[in-house]
């Protein structure tokens, strides 16, 4: 049964409070890694087979329990929008990523930009209806869109999902206005001029990383005790998320760069990452390799950590932003190139490599790490610290994300129960 259906509020004020609490409770249920990989997208497409079951259960709930009052769904499940319309309830599209990526994704599926040079992966695609008219090379666009074939049944179904999203009452993103003001402060044509509610950073609602994700390979207290020995802002945290394992040459380049540079580091190496033999022993005095799931939230919030070498998965970005930690960027795919652009616009990150198949130069990466931790990186760290304060302020009562959440509740309440009496 829908959580909204179970809430059973009696008065109008209680109804609004119940809806607000239910939406707030979702803050701790965001996917750990943020990025939408192509495989995950295809699995999302397969969810279309659940449409008849979804329709049947919704009707049972409506008939025998409290009626469904709203449908909030991931932006890959646009097929839920016509079902919400059948039920006569509002539909809300949620994206656990940034508003810029949300607008770009729907722009692609609306306009289906054609390539003039099909063999040129660097051919630029511009988004004229998005503030700043951002431009990206073809290779950095959504893998799902790049696989589109006109007339293909699956391709056309995927496109329809996104077009259905445009009939939603509004959009909700796990972001905050201080990071994305141009993309959330006014309606965008690529989102059918619908309101975008930025209610993040949702990750900050979770007190510790032990509340979500996988089992830690090392206790948070153990890592914290190791970090305690280093000065403020002097340690580089390295993690490329849970979906992409570095190839042996890539892992060797990262290890070489860390060995050549002087800063202390914590490297969270995903299972399957080929950390070179002998690397741990050679860097033991200033380095710690965690093989498996690391307590990322606690690491980023430790005073000793000043930089984060990251793949730019959105939840990792938000966790770093909330902690006031600057970033060294290696975007690899999905929404990560969009995320990297936002970070560059905010001046809180430095690009060191790009692409899932990239073979980064260890010397260049080592130089970037050394420069970041040195005086050259001070302005970036200062801006990151300021962004951290803005992220914390955004979710405070009465501030941007908190206001957006309350306005979302008010909008849904007005649709479901009618406007409040004066």
From TrEMBL:
One of its GO terms (molecular function) is UDP-glucosyltransferase activity. InterPro entries: UDP_glucos_trans. Gene3D superfamilies: Glycogen Phosphorylase B. The keyword Transmembrane helix does not apply. Keywords: Transferase. It holds the Pfam family UDPGT. SUPFAM superfamilies: UDP-Glycosyltransferase/glycogen phosphorylase. Belongs to the UDP-glycosyltransferase family. This is UDP-glycosyltransferase 89B2-like. It comes from Panicum miliaceum. The lineage of its organism: Eukaryota, Viridiplantae, Streptophyta, Embryophyta, Tracheophyta.
């Amino acid at each position: 049964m829908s959580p909204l259906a179970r809430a059973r509020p009696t008065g109008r004020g209680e109804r609004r409070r119940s809806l607000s609490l239910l939406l707030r409770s979702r803050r701790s249920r965001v996917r750990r890694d943020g990025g939408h990989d192509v495989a995950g997208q295809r699995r999302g497409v397969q969810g279309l087979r659940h449409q008849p079951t979804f329709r049947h259960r919704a009707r049972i709930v409506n008939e025998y329990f409290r009626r469904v009052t709203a449908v909030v769904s991931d932006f890959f499940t646009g097929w839920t929008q016509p079902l919400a319309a059948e039920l006569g309830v509002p539909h809300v599209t949620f994206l656990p990523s940034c508003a810029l990526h949300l607008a770009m994704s729907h722009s692609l599926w609306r306009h289906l930009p054609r390539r003039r040079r099909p063999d040129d992966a660097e051919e630029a695609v511009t988004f004229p209806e998005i503030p700043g008219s951002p431009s990206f090379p073809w290779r950095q666009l959504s893998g799902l869109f790049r696989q589109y074939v006109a007339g293909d049944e699956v391709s056309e179904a995927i496109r329809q999902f996104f077009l259905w999203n445009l009939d939603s009452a509004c959009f909700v993103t796990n972001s905050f206005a201080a990071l994305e003001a141009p993309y959330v402060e006014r309606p965008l044509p690529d989102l059918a001029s619908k309101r975008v509610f930025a209610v993040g950073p949702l990750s900050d609602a979770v007190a510790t990383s032990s509340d979500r994700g996988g089992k830690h390979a090392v206790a948070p207290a153990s890592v914290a005790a190791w970090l305690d020995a280093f000065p403020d802002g002097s340690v580089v945290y390295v993690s490329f998320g849970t979906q992409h394992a570095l190839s042996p040459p890539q892992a060797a380049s990262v290890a070489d760069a860390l060995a050549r540079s002087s800063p202390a580091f914590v490297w969270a190496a995903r299972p399957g990452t080929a950390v070179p033999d002998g690397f741990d022993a050679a860097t033991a005095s200033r380095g710690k390799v965690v093989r498996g799931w690391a307590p990322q939230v606690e690491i980023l919030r430790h005073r000793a950590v000043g930089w984060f070498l990251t793949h730019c998965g959105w939840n990792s970005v938000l966790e770093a932003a909330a902690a006031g930690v600057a970033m060294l960027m290696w975007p690899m795919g999905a929404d990560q190139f969009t995320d990297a652009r936002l970070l560059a616009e905010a001046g809180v990150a430095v690009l060191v490599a790009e692409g899932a198949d990239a073979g980064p130069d260890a010397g260049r990466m080592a130089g970037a790490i050394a420069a970041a931790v040195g005086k050259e990186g001070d302005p970036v760290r200062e801006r990151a610290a300021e962004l951290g304060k803005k992220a914390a302020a955004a979710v405070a009562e009465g501030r941007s994300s908190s206001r957006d959440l309350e306005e979302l509740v008010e909008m849904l309440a007005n649709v479901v129960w009618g406007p409040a009496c004066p």
